[in-house]
Amino acid sequence: MSDIKSRPIWGRIRPVAHAARHFVCCEGSSAARHVAETFSPNAEALKQVTILYGNTDRNEEAGHTLDALGAEASLHYPTRQTLLISFKAHLKRLHMGAQIYLCGPEAFLNEATAIAESHGVLKEAVQTELCGANARRVQCVHCKGLIENVAYTPIACEHCGVNLMVRDHYSRRLGAFMGVCVDAEAPGDLPARESF
Amino acid sequence: MAGESFLVRVTHADPVTTSVKRLRMQAIDGKTLPPASAGSHIILTLKTPNRLLKNAYSLLPSSLDGGTYEVAVLRTEDSRGGSTFVHDALSEGSELTISTPVNLFPINRRARHHVLVAGGIGITPIAAMAEELFRDNRSFELHYCIRNEPNGAFLKDLQARYGERVHLYHSDIGERFGVAKALPQQRIDTHLYVCGPEGMIGAVLNDASALGWLQENLHAERFLSPGGGDPFDVVLRRSDIEVTVGEHESLLEAIERVGVDAPHLCRGGACGQCRCSVVEKDGIIQHRDHYLTQEEREAGDAIMTCVSRLKGQRLELDL
Amino acid sequence: MSLSTIEVDDVRHEFNSETFRDDYTFSNSPEAIARFPFPFDRDEYMYAVNIEQHMPGPPKSATEFPIDIDEHYVAEMADRARVLKEDPLRCQSLPHMLMAEWDLLDLLMTSMARDYPRWFSLERDGRKWHWINRPLGIEQRFVFGDPTTLPQGPMEYVTRQCQGDFCLLDQRDNNLWLDAGIVTSQADWSLDFDLGMNFIEWHGPVPLAHNMNIFDRALKFLMNLQQGRPVRRLNWTMTVNPRLDTSPENYHRWGIDRTTVTPENVGDKVHLRVELQALWRLPRSNAIVFSIRCYLIKMGELVTQPKWARRIHRVLRDLPPELAEYKGLTNYRAATLEWLSQYDDGAPTSPGFYPD
């Protein structure tokens, strides 16, 4: 692993005992199961828990596990986009003392943490855990286009076609890794493909 | 490395309450006092009859544009006599040296709502913050804890200018500012700033933390006066100088008295600039700063010269 | 508003007419070579926190004044205008940085008018300011603090008229945050990508230095930077062709230039690129301005100073491979070294930056 200091390091979600409210946003069934396991021993806190679930791999059972927690609200969404629209709407209504928990694949964490940041939420108020694919969200530095779920490097930019090396340099504001032309000094000469 | 300094003349000196005196100052060395950011302080060099004192005071709102600076000083019974000197010896026409402004208590400009909390003379940086936020048309509220109305410095001005944003708490009738009661349902991008007596700062920070507020959203200015203690000897190894630190003098002041240019900035135990390595000691360091971690204190190999002392006979520093 | 043609023509001839793209007509006069801020004070290079007080240097040197305006001024400003026209994201400011933008405008206009009175003048009457820039033919009356009285935001307005890239750093949470900047002559880093990052994050890609705690120490130092006590340091890299805009955004266009170096064209094509970086604490905002002033010199111009010729050969020869890679030298280091070796007879060099 690279030692580039901007690369995000995801943690583990752990309910904060004295938080006034818990706000969970998770994507995918493995994330849903993990959230259910993490919160079930904290039954007394569940009255102040709101859970948003992106059921992106069509797993109703995992959704039921979340519903069974008995949280104040447990809401399901069909896609990442609809999940994050709701996440933004809820963020605007949150108050001081709330703790945010994000759990899901890398590209989901990339985008959701950037949304929280753009709403003035400090990164310390957001707990994260990688649960699912580690495919990344990438910005092409040349055309500025965002590419979702990039699983390997190099990759051709889906917007401008330039061959990109995905670097570990990461922008929390954009919620994306940097993609930069890999063959500028030797056109067409691409290094072997590497998965993340 | 010391910052720029200015020679100033006091152009105005007036009582704000029975125990608070305001000084207005203007540069007389051909320089112009620069603008300042809210929350900044300056160091006044006070030539008291017994010793040279360097005390930090927050700048009042009228200082933000530069040209003139104003500070408000509470008369206290501190053993060093700095505030007594300001009250009794400084008047219109007095000349003194001040430092360039330093801000260790800045407004977080990313916040979208600001809660300002002041206790007593702690109003000085808080009032400057209120003014800057007001001019900038930012969302803020001001909570001001005073003994009673005659005792509340700048109270009438604050109420006239900021209206319903000002909330008062009179301690003589038992009113107290409490985070849970005063600040329910604050939006998530709120920052809180508190300045006042040590006990009050601690209570506000503890209350807020207990309600799930993050340390990163909480800001406090805890200026310490160095305070006195038993005299002790200090050896400056690199300079090869030995000097006795008097009972009313800080370690830093003693080092400066013998002409050694030691690093410093806030002179109040907050910024970390004056941290100095201890080579040898025959006693216990009385750590009085807010900078060193518990582990660093226990290690005993570093001291903040602006406020901390040795309980012992002899301290050797790498200076 | 603009000045009359006669007044502009009066000073225009003091500046080079040259380009930093396409036909690359940039060059340094003998005077500009003599004042070039050569960055090596010994025959080897390694990272250091080489920060010093930004004190006035000798007359005519690049550090004689806090803000250096030289013979390339007019051409550099034209190049900046063209970059901004093609890519407005090179100049960005997050909403909380407006006060720092005014601070920057004050610092630059005050310095330029004080140190170059032939070219610039500033009259202040309270908040009513009157600015004249003769080389660029600009006259502007505006109200300090009121952005509606300027054609662009205060940072963009003033930095379209001042050489160097500028970043504004907000200080909060025990860190410095890159929250505004104008960056059009950068050594391969992206303002758009790095905007909003803290000091440690935006230096993330620099090799070796993190392990040496260079950035942790520099951050601690800069957080305590005081008003009236600016500091500076020199940084360097190499560039093929005198291109100011070596941005990652356009790397897919200019990267190929690195393959065009041959032993025959090193003297004209390969440039040492020195950044005079300076930092000031700003009074109203408590922010820090980080200026990155780029100086280019052709190898052919550099070797007119025998001491510099010997030293640059030795520095490049002994550079650790990670650094050579990071600075993008890999493709043309060998050819450059071969060409430079003819100027290095192995004789000892005197200590210090200045030519003998």
From TrEMBL, chain A:
Keyword Flavoprotein assigned: yes
Sequence ranges assigned to domain Dimethylamine monooxygenase subunit DmmA-like C-terminal in this UniProt record: 137-180
Protein name: Uncharacterized protein
Record key words, sorted: 2Fe-2S, Flavoprotein, Iron, Iron-sulfur, Metal-binding, Oxidoreductase
A GO MF label: oxidoreductase activity
UniProt xrefs under SUPFAM superfamilies: Ferredoxin reductase-like, C-terminal NADP-linked domain
Lineage, highest ranks first: Bacteria, Pseudomonadati, Pseudomonadota, Alphaproteobacteria, Hyphomicrobiales
InterPro entries (UniProt xref): DmmA-like_C, DmmA-like_N, FNR_nucleotide-bd
Keyword Signal annotated: no
Dimethylamine monooxygenase subunit DmmA-like N-terminal domain boundaries: 3-125
UniProt source species: Fulvimarina pelagi HTCC2506
From TrEMBL, chain B:
Record domain FAD-binding FR-type: where: 3-108
Segments forming domain 2Fe-2S ferredoxin-type: 232-319
GO terms for MF: 2 iron, 2 sulfur cluster binding; metal ion binding; oxidoreductase activity
Official protein name in the record: Probable ferredoxin protein
Cofactor(s) the record lists: FMN
Keywords assigned by UniProt, alphabetized: 2Fe-2S, Flavoprotein, FMN, Iron, Iron-sulfur, Metal-binding, Oxidoreductase
